[in-house]
Amino acid sequence: MDRKTEIRLIEEVLALREQGETQYAQSAVAHDIDRYVSPQWFARENEKIFTDRPIAIAAACEVPNQGDYISVQWTNGISLLIVRGDDHTVRVFANACRHRNARLVDQGERGCKRRFVCPYHAWTYDDKGNLAGAPDFDRGFSDLDKNKLGLIEFNSRVVGGIVYVCLNPNKEVPSDVLEPQMISGFEYLNLDNLRVYKSRSYKINANWKILLEGGIEAYHFNVAHKNTLAPFFLGNLSTWEGFGSRNMRMVLPKKPILEASELSEDKWDLRKMANIIYALPPGLLFLAQPDNLSIIRTIPLSAGETLIEEVLLVEQPADGSDQWSDDELKMHETNHHLVNKILMEDWVLGETIQSNMASGVVGEIHFGRFESALIWFHQEYEKLMELNEDVIARFN
After folding, report:
1. What is the rounded end-to-end Cα distance, in angstroms, of the chain?
2. Do the Cβ atoms of 221 and 236 come closer than 8 Å?
3. Which residues form the Rieske domain (predicted)?
């Protein structure tokens, strides 16, 4: 974001705080729980959102150098292999050998390779997905064209430092897939120059929307995070903006922002005065803290299961070397565990919510006026799902 936007957001928080308010919707909203538990709803999400539209799947800085790769699972059991080639282009392939469909690298693996060798029969691919060699190929597969047996490549594009992929082979990823405000925000966070410190992955037994919802409202801070976040934040106070059909920026102000009115404007620093969230659902959510940026990668597995991958991005070593100092490592390790601790406070609640929804005892959920970001998200979600009364009736 530019400096003008940064100042505006701080001013908005101060004005809301002075009024004793937060950002409101016009009215409270209720939804049937079917959108969280119904296999029919999930199947329509798969059709309308997960497969047919471009999905933000990774940050390009996760694969900064030639041969760097990560394996990312997506819905329907699709295993994606994201690779930066020797031409510096980031490509997204199916993590599947063209011989017998074995995975080239393990699920969730990341590293650097110039060649990807199938562990089954050693068919070998270069970092552009071309079949570079296979044992006894000419003798055993003389009737096949090696040039047509490269890895399956999905349409993809890097925009604003974000890797987008579309699994529909008939659709491209448009150049304007990410709004200028979001691109500016990732530039503000120095996304392209950050490095991966550590990552972890695990499965949560809850719908992906429940997990997203916990990240875009502050109403629960004083209760669910009473010992972790609540002492440092301003309770149920936030400001947010939606861009396009899904993307969102949210500012969660910390108590030091109250000192802004006593400082000259040139001393105002939103990064130090608030946590900033950039949400690109369903695939990615970025949590920006003063000295790190967390990627929360969200992979919907079913109506009631979501795979989570946390990736902690940090600045390059301050001394210009390839290794962080002991003090830097200590700070990064502390943040790596703290982010997980806070997320798990939400995830545990999310699993209980999903369980209660599955029981059917309470048939609806409610969003209050100060949960306005959730109301906006579901309005846009319903547009993407192309919902109408006839469609909803088929789900019930």
Report:
1. 43
2. yes
3. 55-165
C-alpha to C-alpha distance for 60 and 192, rounded to whole angstroms: 7
Q: How far apart, in whole angstroms, are the C-alpha atoms of residue 46 and residue 40?
A: 10
Mean pLDDT of the region 323-336: 95
CATH number of the domain to which 116 belongs: 2.102.10.10
User: Which residue, chain included where needed, has tokens 């009215």?
Assistant: 27
Q: From residue 208, give the alpha-carbon distance in Å to each of 82, 215, 305, 308, 329.
A: 22, 11, 7, 9, 32
**370 shares its domain with 230:** yes
Residue 104, domain extent: 62-166
CATH code for the domain in which residue 240 is found: 3.90.380.10
For the chain, the domain total comes to 2
The confidence band for 388, taking pLDDT boundaries of 50, 70 and 90, is confident
Whether the full predicted model's pTM is greater than 0.85, yes or no, is: yes
Residue type at 360?
A: G
Full strand arrangement of the beta sheet holding 292-302: 195-204, 305-314, 292-302, 284-289, 274-280, 247-253, 239-243
Contact (Cβ atoms closer than 8 angstroms) between residue 335 and residue 292: yes
